């Protein structure tokens, strides 16, 4: 039996790697790769809890909803990135500073 | 704790996933990052198989590996400058970002490994039928809201991404 703490630790490490991408990348697409990693880490935790909780598959259902939302989120994100690219000819997030005071 | 085949498999897949994730966030070539993300998400699907989540493993392969990753590669290909060095992406503020993430990871991992979790394993068979029942009984409202959300996303993404036509 795999100890649940180890699974959650892998999820936490993956989450923090995604957070690193979020904090340090400036290319919008690379930032979204970090967000996908974070969502997958959260899903891993849902599945681990569901696996070790008897008589319940709520965690699996939550994970299916997360996957659905992630796909929807990335569709909108891709549209926004394309719109950003048409406006600024760049996906470097620091270039989009029109509203900076 | 004995070394069962499942545990050894879990360790190997974890190492694969974490190394892949690290490559995704540190490589300078964004196309390589996209393909490393593909491998990482595939590793997560293998983990779902280890935890007996058969339906979720299939969904992960279909939607993440097959769908989201293709979208990411589309995003990369549609938005790269052809003039400059292509496909370059770099990390900024590496030290503060790495320190923040390392501290959060250390706190989380320490807490998660020391907390006395309760674990009840039940022999689980195929799970798709149970998930379908849940979607149509207990999670009916979220399920319907999700379908409306997907419709809104479909229309919204087209509306945002299309080019403005000047009259």
Key features of this structure:
heterodimer; A: 101 residues; mainly alpha; Helix Hairpins; B: mainly alpha; Four Helix Bundle (Hemerythrin (Met), subunit A); 72% helix; globular
Layout: helices, strands, pairs:
The complex is a heterodimer of chains A (101) and B (167).
Chain A: H1 4-24, H2 28-51, H3 58-88
Chain B: H1 5-26, H2 30-50, H3 54-78, H4 94-114, H5 128-136, H6 140-161
Greatest contact between two chains = A-B, 71 and 86 residues
- What is the overall silhouette of chain B? globular
- Give the integer mean of the pLDDT values of chain B: 87
According to CATH, what is the topology of chain A? Answer: Helix Hairpins
* Structural Rg of chain B: 21 Å
CATH superfamily of chain B: NADH-ubiquinone/plastoquinone oxidoreductase chain 6, subunit NuoJ
**What oligomeric state do these chains adopt?**
heterodimer
What would you say the CATH architecture of chain A is? Answer: Orthogonal Bundle
Given helix and strand content, the structural type of chain B is mainly alpha
Domain tally of chain B: 1
Gyration radius of chain A, in Å: 17 Å
Low-confidence stretches of chain A: none
Helix and strand pattern of chain A:
HHH
């Amino acid at each position: 039996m795999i100890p649940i703490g180890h699974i959650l630790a892998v999820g936490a490490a993956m989450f923090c790697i995604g957070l690193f991408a979020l904090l340090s990348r400036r290319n919008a697409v690379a930032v979204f790769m970090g967000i996908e990693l974070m969502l997958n880490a959260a899903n891993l935790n849902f599945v681990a809890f569901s696996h070790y909780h008897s008589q319940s598959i709520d965690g699996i259902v939550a994970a299916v909803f997360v996957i659905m939302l992630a796909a929807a989120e990335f569709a909108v994100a891709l549209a926004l990135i394309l719109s950003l690219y048409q406006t600024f000819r760049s996906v470097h997030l620091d270039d989009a500073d029109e509203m900076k005071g | 704790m004995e070394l069962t085949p499942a545990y050894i498999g879990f360790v190997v897949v974890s190492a694969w996933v974490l190394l892949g994730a690290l490559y995704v966030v540190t490589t300078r070539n964004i196309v390589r990052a996209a393909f490393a993300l593909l491998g990482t998400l595939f590793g997560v699907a293998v983990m779902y198989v280890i935890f007996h989540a058969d339906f979720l493993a299939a969904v992960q392969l279909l939607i993440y590996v097959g769908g989201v990753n293709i979208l990411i590669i589309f995003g990369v290909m549609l938005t790269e400058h052809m003039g400059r060095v292509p496909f370059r992406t770099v990390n900024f503020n590496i030290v503060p970002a790495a320190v923040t993430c390392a501290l959060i990871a250390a706190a989380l991992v320490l807490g998660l490994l020391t907390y006395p979790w309760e674990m009840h394993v039940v022999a689980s068979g195929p799970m798709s039928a149970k998930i379908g029942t849940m979607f149509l009984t207990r999670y009916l409202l979220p399920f319907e809201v999700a379908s409306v959300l997907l419709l809104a996303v479909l229309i919204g993404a087209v509306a945002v991404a299309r080019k403005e036509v000047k009259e």
